[in-house]
Amino acid sequence: MKKKGSKKEKKIFFKVYMWTISYLYQYRWKFALFVISGIVLTLVNLAVPKLFQRLIDDIIPQKNVSALLWLLAMFAILIVSFFTFTVLRQWMQRHIQEKAGIDLQLSLFHHLRKLGFSHYEKTPTGYTLSMFHTEVAAVQQMYSNLFPSMLERSVTVIISSILLFSINVKLSLIIIPCILLYFVGGPYFSKKWGVWNKEALHLRRETGKKLYDSISALIEVRAYGRVDWDLKRLIQSQSDYHRALLKQYVFSYLRGAMRTLSANIGTLVLFIASAIFIQQGSLTIGDFVAFSLYFFIVMDTLISLIGLLTQQSVVISQAELLYRFLAIEPEVKEVDKPHWLQEVKGAITFDRVSFGYNGQSDVIQHFNLDVQPGEKVAFVGSSGNGKSTLLKLVSRFYDTTSGEIRLDGMPISQLSFAQLRGSIGFVFQETYLFGGTIMDNIRFGKPEATGEEIIAAAKSAFAHHFIMEFPQGYQTEVGERGVKLSGGQKQRIAIARMFMKDPQIILLDEATSALDSTSEQEVMRSLDALLEGRTTIAVAHRLSTVQHFDKIVLVEQGQPAEVGRYEQLMEQQGAFYQLVRGRLSEGVVG
């Protein structure tokens, strides 16, 4: 069983490894030049011991001045070559690292957009941010250092070993066990280092998530008096992370100690054996110097190569998170050849629509409703009956389990996301404002809009007056998530954005439920101007805000229990009438 699991793990490792380096394919010629530059630098370094060997054995004893000048010329060429290819390699390294890293990030961003609303609801923001910050940065090391260095060091070990044997076969055979001595404990320590490095990275990611939550929930933490509780969570998370980090360092030091031990033993054996061979006349002083330099190069490079392989295994384990993320299939997919409506009129039909989250029991059950172009429809009812879910289904944030929703007679599943969502304006209970100026936030509805268009939209949303009360007017910075504005002001900015977008369909998800009565009146005045002539579906908590709507739908257990105008439903004295009486007694409707 373990062997099967091991084979499966190796297969996945290979797949992830090939996927990771596949981002280099677009830059293969530049990457090849990058690797060639590294190999040239390696050859330059390997040429130096041979020149020393020639200097010691031939030039100095014979006092050959012309050969010395030739040797100095060779040194000069090597120095120029080293400088040239070092600059070229560093430039290529930075270029490839950034380009391939950007391509990887764009792949993740595009896929994140494809996964859509359902993924956002299930995945913490802190986890996604950590993935971009930690895993992507780790994979960039593969492009800039780990993968090319592995190739270069492999070439170095092979050529250096050949040069060792070319100098003296017997001495090489004696030294090989000393080189292999590192493998007694070195790989084990490297493996344990990799395990704790992986654990440290995981705990670092968890700490990042907690830190994000702590900063995001700062107001709630203080309001509930849970500062100490939040601090303990962070301290515990940091403590776990540093404990793993400490163990990682311990095995790193043990690995280094093993490297030093094997190098020192090898040096001792080398000196003793070389002294014997020099006395016997089978080894010259120049051979000894060159052999010693190559020995240290092989030792250092081989140990470095093992470390690189260990680091790559850690990076690939991180890259596997990205690989698996990109393998997630979107729950809502766009058809290959979407239909395009010549004109969106705004007729919406719910035809026997059923839906449940994550395969659970249906929140919406056989829902039927016709909404005419320009009609204003309100969904009302107690919480948990599927009102907001219906709005998500209209926007195709989720697909129906059965039945279908049609826009102007065409199933929305056959329309492109661009046309469907381009025709819909969504005003949420909590408006998200970007950390820029008021003008930038309104322009979000139409990126190419002029300043005059933005001001006109703000006036239509009854936002121009309060905007001009700020010293910087439309250039006022709203702060993160619009923290410098009141709830009513943020909602009117959102409505101004809708005027800029000019959609045919407006979806309101309890857009005024979080506002006080004064702010609600201001926002309702803006909404009345926005909804004029547009198909509107609103989820309403305060029934007084939808009394003038064309149609009110009481949603109970995912079905339309009652449908009609406000006056009609009140006259029937059915479930809606009882709901209004209950809300009146609670002081919600006034």
TrEMBL record:
Domain annotation ABC transporter: ranges: 348-582
Primary subcellular site in the record, as a coarse category: membrane
A Pfam family reported for this protein in Swiss-Prot or TrEMBL: ABC_membrane
Domain ABC transmembrane type-1: 32-311
Keyword ATP-binding attached: yes
GO molecular function terms attached to this record: ATP binding
UniProt topology in membrane: Multi-pass membrane protein
Subcellular location: Cell membrane
Cited PROSITE patterns: ABC_TM1F, ABC_TRANSPORTER_1, ABC_TRANSPORTER_2
Designated name of the protein: ABC transporter ATP-binding protein
Organism: Paenibacillus yanchengensis
